[in-house]
Every structure is written in structure tokens, then in C-alpha cells.
């Protein structure tokens, strides 16, 4: 079982003792005329006229700013007492995510630039630290609300939210922290279970090439009992090893070691490189597909997913707290779902940690751009590379979703270039992580992928039965149907891959709310919501041709009030009754 340290660490898969949380009050300023660089705001104090609570974006109420207007350039400043580390040790500053471009200075010295609003970055700030212990940290964030080549997901480019797009999340929106590490230390760590029971591949990357060979030790434990202990010498910066559990408890019953939503077994992992020790964990599980089914641990597993926007009324895309993330996972499971599709957002690693620990599968999106160009494709690709580098070790992640509803490849049906873009990103994700299925373009206009997702918002159970009752009808729908108005698959013949009803439902129940967007249909009362939900899901459960479903959606978000929960995560109808409907009859 993971340690209490990991319950609160910003990156639970790579946790060290003694980290320093830098969230809280920072000085803040808008730079609407974009003069801060020329005027060297990184060295000034007089321009910072506000106070913001990090990591909440300035558009959100929790930030203390709550300004939802157009402000493309943001500046942050804070002081901290940090002594220079002793010889042989380094101070590393880490950011969970800053949307979109970040520049960082320490004591007026530029230490980092990073493009990409969803992914982490770090800077070794040792050489910039002042000897007196008082340090000045300044961040400039640039986030153009009008740039449709920039991956933005559901963040609106119009000044006010419209249809299915929401208030923006600019600047710092995930934790900021500081770590002191030895010169020889772990930079990244990924455990990848194999199809052989009790076997896992591990990749350890060191921060730098040492002059001398470095000793790396890896230990796996379960309930305080050592399963594997391995040690070897590394000459360069990369170590790849295969570890095998040899324990009599699991030789006859290997399933007892397997991770699943019903049995989320996690083994503690400790990796030591000289004086550096990091805490992680391993979930022994495999995911994949055959022609009809999603496979978990080599066996067909029916997916019951909820679509979650990962958006909060007081904090927007930022998580209110680690406790709120845990409660979210617990609530999704209580509603009867065995998984979640995090929509148009690379979710906070702390959410993924609770999915790992409590047992919830995740289909992982990334934020889309809305204009196709070489720049937008490069930006999307760069973020995906960093997402997989950060998140590939989470056992909860069951697959990656490269594109959604042709966002960012809007002419994919008519453009071979854009189809090549989808194929290329699909292949890249498979090359980076061959252990998971990848959906190339979810919803319609399938080009490449290990599953085919259909978005169908009909509320007529008979139509659901006619389209999806069995495998033959599903294949016929894929070949000729247009439930979303577009072709479901481009090319002929229809692909021989599992089919998910990956968006459907969307019943709105929001009495007396004039801001509601009711694009998918309305339920007038909790009773009618249960009645309509039950009838629709009964038809879905009756299908023998679908590999699973993803219901839209978990919680109300902005003006989109079609959640099973309110935006404050309160059930709109009896929770146990919803769960019975979601789970359906035994399969």
C-alpha cells in the first residue's frame, strides 16, 4: 500500500521525503500591454498589485482574483527562505502545470521556459540561489485566449462561456514545489507490467551521466513483505530491467497479485540511487483488445465509464484539494461505474493516484486545439509525449484518446493530410506506450485505433436497440450509420476492433436555472431522470455487440447541466438507484 507521503505528494509515482510546498499566497499582476519583459518585471516589486492563491487560476473564485476577462499575460512573484544546498546536492523547482507558456526567474536569473499547458516541468535552481537564504521566485505565464492552434480543450475562446465550452484556466493551475536532491538522482521512473504473471519491466532514468558507475537498487513490497529486491550498476543515464516476483503465495494463484477495479492491489516500490530514494508503486495488470472486447488481465472486461470534465466551480480545472480528488473517485465508484473518461484534460496525477489506489479505470484525453496546422499538430504532439512520460506508470490508465470528434482535424473526412495526422499521432502513442490501447479519433470519423468510439445522443431506447443490439447491427451502424451526423469510420471495410458507445445520455435536470444549455434533452424531475436513464441504459446493457459505454456526464459543468451530480457533487437522484441502473444485470 502506498505511503502517507504519496497521499499528498504532487507526483505520487515519484515521491521524495522532505519536499517543500510552494502553493499559497503569491504576488500577482496582469500585463495586458505585454511590457513586462522589456521593463524587467522579474526584478521589480512595484508592479505586483494583487495577491493570488496558487495553484488556482485567476479566473476562479478560489484564487482571490476571479477575473474571467481576457488577460493573456500573467506575472507571479513570491519570496521564500531556502538556503543553498550543501556541496553535492541540488535544489530543483517543480511545476505541475502552467497554461500555456511559462518563463521562470530565480533572483532575476532566467532558469526555465516551458510550452504546454497540461504537463510538468522543472528547473535546477542551485546556481541561482542567494547565499543569504532569501530567494525571489518570479513566473511569467502567457496564454492567448484567441489562439486556436493552442491546445485548450474545453476552455472557451469567446469572452463568455457558450454551448459546451467553459471558463478559462490560465497560468499556474497545478502544484508548485521544491526538492533538494543529490547530484545523482532519479529523473523519471516507469513500471510496465507484462503478460507474464508477476513480471514487470522497469525503466529508471537518471538526471545526469555520472563520472563513475552508479548503484541502483529496486525493492517491491506488499503488505510489508519483500517480493523483489534487485541491484545493479549503471554506467550511463538509463536503466532497463525486468523484475519477476517469486513468491509461493502467487505461483498457484497469480490472480491474487493482479490489479483491477474490484481488487486494486498495489505493491510499494522504492528506488535508490546513491543517496537518493524515491517512493513509487506497481499495479500488476495488463490492458488490451481483441476484435470484440476490451481486455483486462487478458480477459474480456465490460467498460462502464462516466465522462468527467475535471472542472470545479470554485477552482476550474485546478483541483480544490487532494481530499476532493479522493472523494471524486469514491463517488464515481459509488455510482456504479468501473471507469472514467477524463475529457479534454490531462488530469492531475493526484487524481490518477486515487484511481490507482481505490480501483477505477481511466481513459485519458488531452486538450485539443481547434485549428489544424503544422504548429497545432506539433504542439499537440509535444504535450502528448510529456503526458505519457509523466503518466505511463499509472495502472488505472486503460488507454489514450488522441483526438475527440475531429477537434483539431476538422477536415479529416476530406483531407489525406489530416488523416495522416491522426494516423501519425496514433502510431506515436503506440510507439511511446505499446502496453495500452489507443483511440485515434473518438466519436466519429475513425481513421486508426485499437477501439472505435461512437457518440450517439439519441434518447430513444428502441433506436439504441436497432443500432447496437448485437455485433451484426453494430458493424452495420459503423459501416453506414451517422448518429452524430458524420460517418463513423473513414475507409472500407469497417475496422475489426471493439466498439464503445463512448458518449451518450446527457439528460439535463436543472430546475429553475436560466443559464442551462439543454442540448441533449431534459428530465423534469429526479423521478423522470431515473426513468429515462433506466430505459436508455437497459437498451445499452442488452447489447451483445458493444464493449462498453461512457455516460455523459458525471457532474454539471458551467452551463452544461447534464450531470448525474450537481457541480457541487450532489446526486440529482437516489445514488443507489443510479448505481443499480449503471451496473445493470450480470453479464
Number of helices: 10
State the total count of DSSP E strands: 32
Q: Give the distance, in angstroms, between the N- and C-terminal Cα atoms.
A: 31 Å
The overall pLDDT, averaged over residues, is: 95
Q: How much beta, percentage-wise?
A: 25-35%
Percent helix: 10-25%
What is the radius of gyration computed over CA atoms, rounded to a whole number of angstroms?
24 Å
Largest sheet: 8 strands, parallel
Q: How would you classify the helix and strand content by structural class?
A: alpha+beta
- The strands making up the biggest β-sheet line up spatially as 29-28-27-26-25-32-31-30
Q: Extract low-pLDDT stretches.
A: none
Shape: globular
Describe the structure.
The chain has 587 residues and is α+β, with helices and mostly antiparallel strands. The strands form eight sheets. It has an eight-stranded parallel beta sheet with strand order 29-28-27-26-25-32-31-30. The protein has a six-stranded antiparallel beta sheet with strand order 3-2-4-10-7-8, with no helix packed on it. It is globular, with a radius of gyration of 24 Å. The two termini are 31 Å apart. The relative contact order is 0.10. The model has no long low-confidence stretch (mean pLDDT 95).
